Amino acid sequence: MKPDAYLTRDPEIRTAIELEREGAAYYDRTLDALRDDELDAPSILPGWSRRHVVSHVAFNAQALRRLVNWAATGIESRMYESTEARDAQIEDGARLPASELRALHRRSAAELDASWRDLADPAWHAQVRMTDGPLIPATSTIWLRTREVWLHAVDLDSGASYDDFPAGLVDHLLANVLSSWRGRREAENIPNFILSPTDRGIPRGVGAADDADAVVLHGSAVDLTRWATGRGFLGVLSESGEPVPVAPRWI
């Protein structure tokens, strides 16, 4: 959908939607390159086939659309009734015939995009809530979908790569992960990771940079983001020479 089709005139929202649309097209190309029988193969995510990834991405669009509709109407409609309901829905979707699963994805994505298209500027700042957690503005649904389509394209394990991600997306992802870790650091005893991208020049950390107990990791911004989002150790080195630890959960 062209940017002019969206009701909002807010340039930041329109730019955010453009990045999501770029990621959606990237995901679609990756999915379309897979034969139906190849959907049965494992994805990068433990315990999930490619079918599970496609099912999750499709139902995620429906869940985010519920939040957009909440913002538009003022009638509460959370993403999922519960984590258990979400998981059961993904399993059900993964068992659909390939043609129906693909159609579910296309339809769900189009309906979410249409809801964004028709959302007036004041409603973009309405407060909505995910299944649990704090209230968020409806604008956050764009980022929530953006990270889904870009990352899960990689998770299909069919040639998509973090190396294809726009630089701004990589930086946003890494900042998002670090912010999540900071918020949970004390409760979950998350180490003070200091991430030093060799191609950015400015280290970023969970805590203070002069912390003697900090775990300092080096690598390109892409490699550090791949590691921080739980998708491998490629290109990441520990300053201490110790093995690179598994990244804490992000979401």
From TrEMBL:
Alphabetical keyword list: Isomerase, Pyruvate
Superkingdom of this protein's organism: Bacteria
Boundaries of every MDMPI C-terminal domain copy: 164-233
InterPro entries reported for this sequence: DinB/YfiT-like, Maleyloyr_isom, MDMPI_C-term_domain, MDMPI_metal-binding, SCP2_sterol-bd_dom_sf
Pfam families: MDMPI_C (PF07398), MDMPI_N (PF11716)
UniProt key word Isomerase: yes
GO molecular function: isomerase activity; metal ion binding
Domain Mycothiol-dependent maleylpyruvate isomerase metal-binding: 22-156
Record-linked Gene3D superfamilies: 3.30.1050.20, dinb family like domain
Name assigned to this protein: Maleylpyruvate isomerase family mycothiol-dependent enzyme
